[in-house]
Amino acid sequence: MSKPYAKFTTSDPDCFRRTGPSCPPLPPIPPTIHTPDGTPLYETLTQSLLHSILRNDDLPLLHLYAANPSTRIFSQEYEVCYKSSVYIAARYSTFEVIRALAEIYMRDDRMTESLGNYCEEMVVSLMNVACTRRDRGMVEWLLEKGGTCPIILLGRPATAA
């Protein structure tokens, strides 16, 4: 078990709600995913496991997480944009992880808007990220995807009022 995920190896169902004498114990929560070595990992209400996977550029675990039908990588319900997976990835992840995240988004039937619009709502511009990092491969990939999709993947940064 790698160190960045050690805090996600146990499930504490009582941390998700108030407990007391009138509250019966909750049934055990199944693991969100298992690492390749079989270690169970549990998600938190704030998606800390997902954020840790993104910050550690862990593509195999990202794909396992995305394959679990009970997980949501993308949500419209973030209280603040900096908690979104796209924002976390744009800030901390490599191009490979950002590309995988974009591909996962495009395959997710639950997402009804373009990735560009979603990024805009989350105050993320993938093109700005690519240019700031001077990542030619990422710029070319974004241009290629934007050219084939009228929905374009770039997003726009938020404008100041």
What does this entry look like structurally?
- It is a single chain.
- This protein has 161 residues and is mainly alpha-helical.
- It has a two-stranded antiparallel ribbon.
- α3 packs antiparallel against α4 and α6 runs antiparallel to α7.
- The chain is built from seven helices and two strands.
- The longest helix has 13 residues.
- The C terminus is likely disordered.
- The protein has a domain of 89 residues.
Short description:
This protein has helices at 48-55, 59-67, 85-92, 95-107, 115-121, 126-132, 136-148, and strands spanning 33-34, 40-41. It is mainly α and 161 residues long.
Question: What key phrases describe this protein's structure?
Answer:
40% helix, globular, 161 residues, Ankyrin, mainly alpha
- Helical/strand content category: mainly alpha
Helix content: 40-55%
Q: Which strand order spans the largest sheet, edge to edge or round the barrel? A: 1-2
Shape: globular
Strand content: under 5%
Low-pLDDT segments:
148-161
Task: Please count the helical segments.
Answer: 7
Largest sheet: 2 strands, antiparallel
Q: N-to-C SSE series?
A: EEHHHHHHH
Secondary structure: number of strands: 2
Fold topology:
Elements: E1 33-34, E2 40-41, H1 48-55, H2 59-67, H3 85-92, H4 95-107, H5 115-121, H6 126-132, H7 136-148
Antiparallel strand pairs: 1-2
